[in-house]
């Protein structure tokens, strides 16, 4: 079987940049397009690109992810997270493409105390979560060949994220309050990128379809996550656990969004790293980058 031509949309984001780095060793042919280069909301431009470059697989990393701002910009969030995704799904159906779409734990209410399976009924509590769920439903409605991956607490050496924010704040302040009553699993974007590149390399003739949870192993609060960062980096900033109510936000966050990955591990035969192991890898990369610039 020949090489696949794979289009990555949203290649300027955390996951997109990690995919670019990991794909250097891939046997497939990738096209990485940031939003400024190919806007996911411009379906005609995407279609012309697909036809010109004989694309057979699209990985959609594009998303409106400003969770609080989405409460005031619901129309824009819907345009990117829902309407554009619906257009991609229609294009995939029309052209026989394989669509891989990245979704989120925010599609769930997040008030459980057991790991969330793919079969749990979604009940998003924010504009961001609702628009991401509408995107998922649009994909399923078309019946196109699609793999939807829900992930949580994504971070990377690229872009803006909790890890990089904590590293900056802990160097600037003597004391920092961090929320301890929201529980989930940090997921290193490179782990997700490795998974995607691997399944596309190894299973070129087998298109896995359906909805799966993907996150690293383990469970923690944002406070635990921050404490692990502080410990690894050797910062002297004192961390104080605080309740969510002390830091009110426009958007409601899930209080418990640990994803059950059993279905994914069975289907793909993969093992997933513990979040602390992956965090150390990411922090090592950040430290190495900072000292070699």
From TrEMBL:
GO molecular function, one term: dTDP-4-dehydrorhamnose reductase activity
Any Pfam family hit: RmlD_sub_bind
Coiled-coil residue windows: none
One GO cellular component term noted in the UniProt record for this chain: cytosol
Keywords, ordered alphabetically: NADP, Oxidoreductase
Gene Ontology BP terms: dTDP-rhamnose biosynthetic process
Pathway info: Carbohydrate biosynthesis; dTDP-L-rhamnose biosynthesis
The protein's enzyme class: oxidoreductase
Its EC number(s): 1.1.1.133
Cross-referenced InterPro entries: dTDP_dehydrorham_reduct, NAD(P)-bd_dom_sf, RmlD-like-bd
Ranges where the RmlD-like substrate binding domain occurs: 5-286
Catalyzed chemical reaction(s): dTDP-beta-L-rhamnose + NADP(+) = dTDP-4-dehydro-beta-L-rhamnose + NADPH + H(+)
Family: Belongs to the dTDP-4-dehydrorhamnose reductase family.
Function statement: Catalyzes the reduction of dTDP-6-deoxy-L-lyxo-4-hexulose to yield dTDP-L-rhamnose.
Protein name from the UniProt record: dTDP-4-dehydrorhamnose reductase
UniProt organism field: Porphyromonas catoniae ATCC 51270
Organism lineage string: Bacteria, Pseudomonadati, Bacteroidota, Bacteroidia, Bacteroidales
Gene, per the UniProt record: rfbD
């Amino acid at each position: 079987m020949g090489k696949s031509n794979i289009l990555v949309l949203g290649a300027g984001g955390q996951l997109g940049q990690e995919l670019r780095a990991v794909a250097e060793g891939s046997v497939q042919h990738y096209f990485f397009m940031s939003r400024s280069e190919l806007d996911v909301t411009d379906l005609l431009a995407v279609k012309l690109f697909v036809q010109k470059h004989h694309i057979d697989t699209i990985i959609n990393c594009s998303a409106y992810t400003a969770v609080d701002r989405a409460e005031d910009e619901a129309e824009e969030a819907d345009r990117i997270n829902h309407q554009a995704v619906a257009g991609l799904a229609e294009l995939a159906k029309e052209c026989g493409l394989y669509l891989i779409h990245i979704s989120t734990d925010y599609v769930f209410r997040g008030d459980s105390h057991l790991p969330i399976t793919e079969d749990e009924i979604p009940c998003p509590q924010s504009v961001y979560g609702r628009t991401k769920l509408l995107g998922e439903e649009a994909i399923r409605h078309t019946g196109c060949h699609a793999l939807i991956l829900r992930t949580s607490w994504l971070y990377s050496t690229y872009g803006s994220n909790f890890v990089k924010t904590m590293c900056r704040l802990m160097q600037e302040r003597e004391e920092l309050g961090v929320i301890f009553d929201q529980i989930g699993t940090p997921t290193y974007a490179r782990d997700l990128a490795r998974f995607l590149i691997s399944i596309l390399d190894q299973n070129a003739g087998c298109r896995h379809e359906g909805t799966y949870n993907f996150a690293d192993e383990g469970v923690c609060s944002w406070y635990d996550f921050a404490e692990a960062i502080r410990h690894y980096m050797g910062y002297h900033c004192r961390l104080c656990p605080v309740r969510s109510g002390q830091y009110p936000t426009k958007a409601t966050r899930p209080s418990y969004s640990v994803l059950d990955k059993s279905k994914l591990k069975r289907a793909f035969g993969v093992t997933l790293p513990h979040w602390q192991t992956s965090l150390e890898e990411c922090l090592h990369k950040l430290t190495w980058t900072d000292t070699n610039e």
